Amino acid sequence: MGAATARLLARERAKVVIADMLEREGRHVAENIGDSAHFEGIDVTDEANSEAVVGAIAARFGRLNVLVNNAGISGSAEQDFHSTDAWHRIMAVNAAGTFYGIKYAVPAMRKARGGSIVNPSSIASITGSEHAHMAYNASKAARSAADDQTGGGAVREGRHAGEFGASGDHAADAHFGAERRSGDTRRSHAVHSKAPAGRGGRGGECHPVADLR
Length: 213
Ligand SMILES: NC(=O)c1ccc[n+]([C@@H]2O[C@H](COP(=O)([O-])OP(=O)(O)OC[C@H]3O[C@@H](n4cnc5c(N)ncnc54)[C@H](O)[C@@H]3O)[C@@H](O)[C@H]2O)c1
What we know:
Layout: H1 2-11, E1 16-20, H2 23-33, E2 37-41, H3 47-61, E3 66-68, H4 84-111, E4 116-118, H5 124-127, H6 134-150, H7 153-166, H8 169-182, H9 186-192
Parallel strand pairs: 1-2, 3-4
């Protein structure tokens, strides 16, 4: 989703910084986009690192207009969904990482006299998910609450899109594939009915929200 969002913003002639802890993959995405994209290494769980990266981006480009707090982990591969270590790890990326991004982007956006922050949430923040560590559900609810704290129409739109995207193809395939094959779609209907759009999203539907500015 991060790569798709970066490509979309670049198509709209934005200068895009792909910030991720996976350097090789991040550089590859930036190189494929071309001169308008640039890669920065970041660990969003490290507050000092987040501050430094946001500062470097604002200094390099003179302004910051859009932040997409895309980095996220679900913990679905955890053997133990009650692991305390996993709880802290997931909350650190999804909740604290989002907070640091907002904390250091907002002053730069104030200087630019406006901006958009998009916090991709998850339908799991409303319905819960038995396929992920419970910290995923909690951290995504924290992300939605962070939107309310940040305020602003574009930010709210971002939250809604995140919830919408949360029930998108990828998740639906992973979570509901067996159910669909059996023809019993009660669980997927119950989950999708809680999404703002009332249905599962399709690839690409949630990315355009990042272009709000
Ligand atoms: N794919 C879905 O169906 C879906 C549904 C709901 C919500 N979301 C949310 O959308 C976002 C993107 O999802 P995705 O499916 O593209 O995930 P993904 O795993 O493909 O990408 C997540 C990225 O976050 C990066 N990352 C993880 N920890 C990091 C850290 N500490 N510092 C810096 N980068 C870090 C990873 O390297 C990876 O590139 C996530 O926040 C996810 O929770 C996705």
